[in-house]
Amino acid sequence: MIQGARLSACLQIVNAVKGGNPVNFEKKQLSAGLYFVATPIGTARDITLRGLDILASADVIAAEDTRTAKRLMEIHGIPLGDRPVIAYHDHSGDMVRARLMKYIAGGKSVAYASEAGTPLVADPGYALGRAAIDAGVPVIGAPGPSAVIAALTVAGLPTDRFFFAGFPPNAKGARRKFIEEYADVPGTLVFYESPKRIQGMLGDLVQKLGGERQAVVCRELTKRFEEVSRGTLAELADAFAERSVKGEIVVLVDRARGVRVSDQLMEDALREALKTMRLKDAATTVSEALGLPRRKVYQAALGMEKGK
């Protein structure tokens, strides 16, 4: 019997390595409550064993994308059975949330999984978690994959302090204002961005933060075509200017080094310099005096001259 058990365990491991059925998950009775399950951001095998246990055991499965959740369970051999799978996303509204809370109030365990990564990080799960807390029911987290942490791990930028800013606004003006709000944060900045807007975002980062800051663009993390591009913001803006890219993107920017100079101070300095100097000389003098990129100061000087 012992030899047979060992053989069975060995076969499970071999099958898992070959891509067959995974090592068995544990199905058990869960107490009533809301279970947030972190799911893979790319490679399906990144999910934790505890995450699989919860998906196998929960009475109700809620998901930002039900197709993704079902596919993940199928890959890992988790039978759905007759358990309900309920879509919960930004457009679900209060009715779906109330339905899920009713299940929990009736003694059911509800597992919620975002489309990818950790629930509540750029994800609609916040209101659901808040509703559960307000109702006094348990909220349990099964930690795991997160694009923020995965990007920080490989970026090579300081991780002692970081600030996750999420997705910037779509419109250029709003995006620049959004970026400017975080210019003085004393830690690494982390943004999510879509491939269609990455060129515009990098350009706005250069405009508002300066081109000299070290930065990293991570694309398709944990997937087959994973790419990590490092350099200054100016270098990355140039590198992506003509590229057509696909996949999920995380942008990381190093903290400001030294005192940040406001646009108003730069313009005041330029006005004084332009009283006695040519435009090019004034831009060079102000750039060196304030420690700003010469290109930024020169462009500002051109704009002031045109404004006259």
UniProtKB/TrEMBL annotation:
Compartment list: Cytoplasm
Reactions this protein catalyses: cytidine(1402) in 16S rRNA + S-adenosyl-L-methionine = 2'-O-methylcytidine(1402) in 16S rRNA + S-adenosyl-L-homocysteine + H(+)
Recorded GO CC terms: cytoplasm
Gene3D superfamilies xrefs: Cobalt-precorrin-4 Transmethylase, Domain 1, Methyltransferase, Cobalt-precorrin-4 Transmethylase, Domain 2
Xref: InterPro entries: 4pyrrol_Mease, 4pyrrol_Methylase_sf, 4pyrrole_Mease_sub1, 4pyrrole_Mease_sub2, rRNA_ssu_MeTfrase_I, RsmI_HTH
rRNA processing is among the record's keywords: yes
GO molecular function: rRNA (cytosine-2'-O-)-methyltransferase activity
A Pfam family assignment: TP_methylase
E.C. number: 2.1.1.198
Superkingdom of the organism of origin: Bacteria
Keywords: Cytoplasm, Methyltransferase, rRNA processing, S-adenosyl-L-methionine, Transferase
Segments forming domain RsmI HTH: 266-304
Top class in the EC scheme: transferase
Domain Tetrapyrrole methylase: 34-237
Record has Transcription as a keyword: no
Family the UniProt entry places it in: Belongs to the methyltransferase superfamily. RsmI family.
Biological role stated in the UniProt entry: Catalyzes the 2'-O-methylation of the ribose of cytidine 1402 (C1402) in 16S rRNA.
Cited NCBIfam families: 16S rRNA (cytidine(1402)-2'-O)-methyltransferase
The protein, known as: Ribosomal RNA small subunit methyltransferase I
Annotated organism of origin: Profundibacter amoris
Native organism taxonomy: Bacteria, Pseudomonadati, Pseudomonadota, Alphaproteobacteria, Rhodobacterales
